[in-house]
Amino acid sequence: MESLTLRASTAASPLQRRRLLPGRQRATYVRATASAGEPDLSVRVNGLQMPNPFVIGSGPPGTNYTVMKRAFDEGWGAVIAKTVSLDAEKVINVTPRYAKLRAEPNGAAMGRIIGWQNIELISDRPLETMLNEFKQLKKEYPDRILIGSIMEEYNKAAWHELIERVEESGVDALEINFSCPHGMPERKMGAAVGQDCDLLEEVCGWINEKATVPVWAKMTPNITDITQPARISLKSGCEGVSAINTIMSVMGINLKTLRPEPCVEGYSTPGGYSARAVHPIALAKVMQIARMMKEEFADGQSLSAIGGVETGNDAAEFILLGADTVQVNY
Ligand SMILES: Cc1cc2nc3c(=O)[nH]c(=O)nc-3n(C[C@H](O)[C@H](O)[C@H](O)COP(=O)(O)O)c2cc1C
C-alpha cells in the first residue's frame, strides 16, 4: 500500500545553513511504500523527524509535564509547550477565563460548543519549573520532538537570555509567540509585535542571531494581510511560520448583568476566539501564506497550520493547502 511520506530536501539559505545540523532540512512530499499494513505518516520538517505531522499546539495541552507526557504516549508527532517568558510573576491568569459559543440558537445550554473565547495569558508557572519539565521529557523521550514556545518584552538581552535558557533544556525547536491577542501590548509582547512589521523584523533579527535550533514564527490573524508578517519572519531567518493564533473577539454581552463575558469581578476584556468556528478563517489565512511561500521561498521553509482542527479531515484540508504540519489544541 502506498502512502504519503516526507523526504528532506537539501536547500538552505545562508542563515539556515549557519544553524542547521546535517539533515536539518525541510521535508517535501514524496511517494513511499509503507511497511506492513500501517500507512507511514512520518515527516521530516526543518530536520525534525516526527512520526506524523500532527502536533499538539501551544496552550492548555502543553501546560505541564503530565499532559505533554500523555501526548507523547498517545503518539502525537510533536508537542509545543505552553508559551513561557523569563518572569512568570508578571502573569496573572484569572478565573473564569473562557466564554463559549453554542451551535443552538440563543446559546441553548445543551447545544454543541463550536467556539471558545479565552483570556488566558501565557504560562504563569515559574520558568525554572517549566524548563525542568522539558529536560525530564527529553530524557524520557529523546527521539520525540519537543518545541518550546516563547514570548518576551521588547528587549534584546531578555530575548537572548530566554532563548539560551530554553535551548539548554534540550528542546528541538522554538516557536515564537508573536500572536496572542491579549498578550501584554504595553510591553510589546505577543500580537503587538506580530502586527507591526518593523518591530517584527527587528525582533526576528535578535532571535535568529541567537537561536541554534529551528525557529517557527507564530502569526496572528488579527491583521489585514497575514502574508506580510509571514514574509518578514521568513526573510529574517525563521525556518517556518505557524498560523493562526486566536482571533480577537467579544463573545457576547450578558443581558442580565449587562457585562461582556467572561467577566471577572465586574471587569472584562476582548479575548481570543478559537475552535470549530474559526476553521474556515484559518483555512483562508493558511492558504494565503502557503501561496506566498510557494512563490517566494524555495529554501525549505515550513508551514504549520492551526485553527479548529477536530478531525482527521480538518487536518487533511490544511495539508492539501500546503501545510507541512497541523497543530491541534483539544
Ligand atoms: C486556552 C487557550 C490558551 C492558549 N495559549 C496559547 C499560548 O500560550 N501560546 C500560543 O502560542 N497560543 C496559545 N493559544 C492559541 C492556540 O495555540 C491556537 O493558536 C488557537 O487556539 C487556534 O487554534 P484552535 O482553534 O485549534 O484552538 C491558546 C489557545 C487557547 C484556547
Automatic annotation (TrEMBL):
Domain of life according to the entry: Eukaryota
Residue ranges of domain Dihydroorotate dehydrogenase catalytic in the record: 41-328
GO cellular component: cytoplasm
UniProt GO BP: 'de novo' UMP biosynthetic process; beta-alanine biosynthetic process
InterPro entries attached to this UniProt entry: Aldolase_TIM, Dihydroorotate_DH_1_2, Dihydroorotate_DH_cat
Pathway(s) of this molecule: Amino-acid biosynthesis; beta-alanine biosynthesis; Pyrimidine metabolism; UMP biosynthesis via de novo pathway
The protein, known as: dihydropyrimidine dehydrogenase (NADP(+))
Species per Swiss-Prot/TrEMBL record: Zea mays (Maize)
Gene: LOC100274265
